[in-house]
Amino acid sequence: MAGIAGSWPDIAGSWPEEPIDDELLTSLIKVNVEGTTKVTQAVLPGMVMRKKGAIVNIGSGAAIVIPSDPFYAVYAATKP
């Protein structure tokens, strides 16, 4: 399984001085954290049964690229 999904709203990077609102934060967590967890839970039993498989989750370098932007910092923190 390769976990590469992520949430990327249209407003990314357009408001570097404004805080992240609760709705955006909830959306990022729901897609990036809960989504990864649920997909992993779905495929893991089959891998254990077959005694074979791999889980590869792709994170983000967003916090390194633009560490002072609130969106990129929060986005990177929610990536596995």
UniProtKB/TrEMBL annotation:
GO molecular function, one term: ketoreductase activity
Keywords: Oxidoreductase
Family annotation (InterPro entries): NAD(P)-bd_dom_sf, SDR_fam, VLCFA-Steroid_DH
One Pfam family here: adh_short
Methyltransferase listed as a keyword: no
GO CC terms of this entry: endoplasmic reticulum
Domain of life according to the entry: Eukaryota
Family note: Belongs to the short-chain dehydrogenases/reductases (SDR) family.
Protein name: Uncharacterized protein
